[in-house]
Amino acid sequence: MVRQGWLQPERLPSGPGYRLTPRAMRRLDEAAARIYRTNTPKWDGAWHLVVLAGIPDRSTRDRVRAGLTFLGYAPLGDRAWIAAHASSEVATLLENESVSAHTFSSRLESDAATLTAEAWDLEALGRAYQEWHRDAEEIAASAGHDAGDELAFVVRSRLVHEWRKFLFRDPGLPRALLPAGWPGEQAAKFFDAETQRLLPGASRFVDACLRV
């Protein structure tokens, strides 16, 4: 994690330790914004493309692929990747892996809906949201409407933990590129409502633990 730029060695009174780098703090802030959808930019119709140079090392290819996927990009071939929004982390990702690439934005001639369907498996993602919603209703029901603070913390933590997994699956496409009746919208509404409902009790439980 130090080599990849997430942690930085730190000398503590008790001995060696680590602290988050600015990159790690930015990643956590951006992940929180995606989880709670507090900063969703509108799509201006331009795609962001990343054309990679050849990467002979397989482990490096795997890390770059995983990194680009997390940032919302999808492959259009062996080396070309596309996203609806440019990510500020792409340059850092490629630099840390010593990979060169050509990046640019373009309004492609291809139909946006067709291109989206080819690049991302929205059908599978939609099913995943439906499955999450179904399971989340059962999890939330276990807390009821008069749950104690500890149970509110546990249930809310489970909801957030399962929901955050979509960070690795959902590219965060703008509404204009999603099919009508997108299951992710209803799932998101349920997530927002239940996590807000459980927040007061969960916060009280954490505060009580910190006072011990």
Tags for this entry?
two-stranded antiparallel sheet; Alpha-Beta Plaits; 4-stranded antiparallel β-sheet; 6 strands; about 210 residues
Structure, described:
- The structure is a single chain.
- By secondary structure, this protein is of the alpha+beta class.
- It folds into three domains: 1-28, no CATH class; 46-119, Alpha-Beta Plaits; 121-211, no CATH class.
- The protein is 50% helix and 14% strand.
- The protein has seven helices and six strands, in the order E-E-H-E-H-E-E-H-E-H-H-H-H.
- The chain has helices at 22-36, 58-70, 90-96, 112-119, 122-141, 149-163, 183-211, and strands spanning 7-12, 15-20, 47-52, 74-75, 80-83, 101-106.
- A four-stranded antiparallel beta sheet has the order 4-5-3-6, with no helix packed on it. The protein has a two-stranded antiparallel sheet with strand order 1-2.
- A hairpin with a 2-residue loop joins strand 1 (7-12) and strand 2.
**Main sheet properties:** 4 strands, antiparallel
What is the radius of gyration computed over CA atoms, rounded to a whole number of angstroms? 20 Å
Give helix % range: 40-55%
**pLDDT average, as an integer?**
91
CA-based shape? flat
Query: How many structural domains does the protein architecture include?
Result: 3
Note poorly predicted spans.
none
How large is the share of residues in beta strands?
5-15%
Task: Please state how the strands of the largest beta sheet are arranged side by side.
Answer: 4-5-3-6
Computed structural class:
alpha+beta
Distance between the termini: 32 Å
Order of helices and strands: EEHEHEEHEHHHH
What is the number of strand segments? Answer: 6
